[in-house]
C-alpha cells in the first residue's frame, strides 16, 4: 500500500466541496475530463489580472511577460514528456486536432493510393475517423488489429497486419472505454523494424503514467490538457523534429508566417509553423501550472495510488452478482467500465447522479468497442488523484441501491 496524501490533495480541488442535491459530489468521470486544482485556477487568474497580452509580437512589458509564461509552459511540456527540444512541442486544441494535423499534413504528404494505415479495434472515434477521411481522399486502406474478450490487443494479429504497404501505425496508449494500456514499446518496435511511423494517442495515458517519448521512440504523441488537470481547449502534439520540419503547415495565418508578399509566403520555423493565429494563451499557462502540480506529486506515485484504487474498485465490483466488468486487461489504467443485468447504462448514470455520483454512461466515443462486446453502452467510473476508497464504497453502495430499485 502506498502512502499518498489524499486528504491534502482533495483540499486542492475546490469543486469537490460542491453538493449534488443534498449529497457530497463523488466525481468519477475523469476519463471524460478532470477537475482543476486551485494552482491551475490561480495561474489563469493571475495572468488575466496582471500579465495578459498577446504573445510573440509585442515589445511592451505585458507582452514580454505573457510570452515568457507561454513559452515557459512549452519548456515544462518538453521536460514532462522528455522531448529533445521545445521545437517538438506543438500547441493544439486537443488530442483530436493533433491527430487531424498528422492526418492532413504527414498523411497527405506520405500516404498514397494502396498504402495502409494500421489502428486497433479499441480506438476512440478521433483515432478512426481522420484516417477514414484520409483513406477516402488518397485511396489508402485502413487496417484494424483485433482485440480479445479481455479488451487486450491480439499482438500476433497486429504483427501479422504490418506489411510493406503500411505507412503509419496510430494506436491508443490507454483505452478510454476499457482502461487497457497497450504494449506500446512492442508496437513501436514492430513498426520500426519496417521503418513505419508511429503515432500514439496519449489522451488517457498522460494523466496516469509517466511518459518518456525518447524512451518510447514514437514519432508522434498527442494529448489533451483537460484530462491532465489543465483547462479545456488546449493540447499538445509532440513530433520528432525532422518529421515536423518535413511536413507542410496544417493551417495558415498569424504566427506560422515569417514573411508574406503577394507573390509568395515564407513559413515560420518550428514549433510556430503549426500554430496559426492567436493561441489559447491562458490555457497554455494553465497547462504549465498543471504540469508543475503533477510533477510535485510525482507521476510514479500517482500511478501506484490509482492502481490501488482500481484494484479496490474491481474487487468490490466482482462482489456484485448483477455487475459485469467490460475490459479486464492485465495491464490496465484506472477505468472501471461495467454493465448491470436488465438496467440500461443511461439509467445507471441518472440514478447514481441522484446520489451525487458522477459517472459516464454511453459508448464513450468508441462505438466499435461496444459492438465488439455486444452492449449498447457501458457505465464508466474513472478514477483520478483526488478520488478515495471511501468514494468507491459510495459508488458500490449506490449500485446496490439501484439494483434493488430495479428488482
List strands and helices in order, with pairings:
Elements: H1 6-11, E1 19-20, E2 23-24, E3 26-27, H2 38-51, H3 61-81, E4 89-92, H4 95-110, E5 116-120, H5 129-138, E6 141-145, H6 155-161, E7 166-172, H7 184-192, E8 197-201, H8 213-216, E9 220-224, E10 235-239, H9 241-246, E11 257-260, E12 265-267, H10 281-297, H11 299-318, E13 323-325, E14 335-340, H12 345-353, E15 357-358, E16 360-362, H13 367-373, E17 378-382, H14 389-406
Parallel strand pairs: 3-15, 5-6, 5-7, 7-8, 8-9
Antiparallel strand pairs: 1-2, 4-10, 9-10, 11-12, 13-14, 14-17, 16-17
Helix pairs in contact: 2-10, 3-10, 4-5, 11-14
Features:
2 domains; four-stranded antiparallel sheet; Aspartate Aminotransferase, domain 2; alpha/beta; 40% helix; seven-stranded mixed sheet
Describe the structure in your own words.
Strands 4-10-9-8-7-5-6 form a seven-stranded mixed sheet, sandwiched between helices. The protein contains 14 helices and 17 strands. The protein folds into two domains: 6-30 and 298-406, Aspartate Aminotransferase, domain 1 (Alpha-Beta Complex); 41-296, 3-Layer(aba) Sandwich (Aspartate Aminotransferase, domain 2). The chain has helices at residues 6-11, 38-51, 61-81, 95-110, 129-138, 155-161, 184-192, 213-216, 241-246, 281-297, 299-318, 345-353, 367-373, 389-406; strands spanning 19-20, 23-24, 26-27, 89-92, 116-120, 141-145, 166-172, 197-201, 220-224, 235-239, 257-260, 265-267, 323-325, 335-340, 357-358, 360-362, 378-382. It has 407 residues and is of the alpha/beta class. 40% of the residues lie in helices and 17% in strands. It is globular and about 75 Å long.
Amino acid at each position: 500500500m502506498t502512502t499518498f496524501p489524499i486528504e491534502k490533495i482533495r483540499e486542492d480541488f475546490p469543486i469537490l466541496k460542491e453538493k449534488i442535491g443534498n449529497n457530497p459530489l463523488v466525481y468519477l468521470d475523469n476519463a471524460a475530463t478532470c477537475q482543476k486544482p486551485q494552482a491551475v485556477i490561480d495561474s489563469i487568474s493571475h495572468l488575466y489580472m496582471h500579465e495578459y497580452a498577446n504573445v510573440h509580437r509585442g515589445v511592451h512589458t505585458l507582452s514580454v511577460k505573457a510570452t515568457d509564461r507561454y513559452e515557459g509552459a512549452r519548456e515544462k511540456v518538453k521536460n514532462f514528456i522528455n522531448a529533445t527540444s521545445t521545437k517538438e512541442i506543438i500547441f493544439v486544441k486537443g488530442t483530436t486536432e493533433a491527430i487531424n494535423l498528422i492526418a492532413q499534413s504527414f498523411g497527405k504528404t506520405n500516404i498514397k493510393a494502396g498504402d495502409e494505415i494500421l489502428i486497433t479495434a479499441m480506438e476512440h472515434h478521433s483515432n478512426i475517423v481522420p484516417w477514414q477521411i484520409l483513406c477516402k481522399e488518397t485511396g489508402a486502406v485502413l487496417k484494424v488489429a483485433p482485440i480479445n474478450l479481455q479488451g487486450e490487443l491480439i499482438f500476433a494479429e497486429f504483427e501479422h497486419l504490418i506489411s510493406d504497404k503500411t505507412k503509419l501505425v496510430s494506436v491508443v496508449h490507454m483505452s478510454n472505454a476499457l482502461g487497457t494500456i497497450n504494449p506500446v514499446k512492442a508496437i513501436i518496435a514492430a513498426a520500426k523494424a519496417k521503418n513505419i511511423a508511429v503515432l500514439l494517442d496519449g489522451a488517457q495515458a498522460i494523466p496516469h503514467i509517466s511518459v518518456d517519448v525518447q524512451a518510447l521512440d514514437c514519432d508522434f504523441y498527442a494529448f489533451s490538457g483537460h484530462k491532465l488537470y489543465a483547462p479545456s481547449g488546449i493540447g499538445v502534439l509532440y513530433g520528432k523534429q525532422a518529421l515536423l520540419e518535413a511536413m507542410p503547415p496544417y493551417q495558415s495565418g498569424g504566427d506560422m508566417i515569417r514573411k508574406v508578399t503577394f507573390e509568395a509566403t515564407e513559413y515560420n520555423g518550428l514549433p510556430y509553423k503549426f500554430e496559426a493565429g492567436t493561441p489559447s494563451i491562458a490555457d497554455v499557462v494553465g497547462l504549465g501550472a498543471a504540469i508543475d502540480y503533477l510533477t510535485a506529486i510525482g507521476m510514479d506515485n500517482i500511478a501506484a495510488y490509482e492502481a490501488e484504487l482500481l484494484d479496490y474498485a474491481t474487487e468490490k465490483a466482482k462482489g456484485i452478482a448483477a455487475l459485469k466488468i467490460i475490459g479486464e486487461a492485465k495491464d490496465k489504467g484506472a477505468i472501471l467500465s461495467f454493465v448491470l443485468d436488465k438496467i440500461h447504462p443511461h439509467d445507471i448514470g441518472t440514478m447514481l447522479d441522484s446520489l451525487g455520483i458522477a459517472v459516464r454512461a454511453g459508448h464513450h466515443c468508441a462505438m466499435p468497442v461496444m459492438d465488439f462486446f455486444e452492449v449498447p453502452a457501458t457505465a464508466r467510473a474513472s478514477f483520478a488523484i483526488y478520488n478515495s476508497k471511501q468514494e468507491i464504497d459510495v459508488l458500490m453502495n449506490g449500485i446496490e441501491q439501484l439494483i434493488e430499485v430495479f428488482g
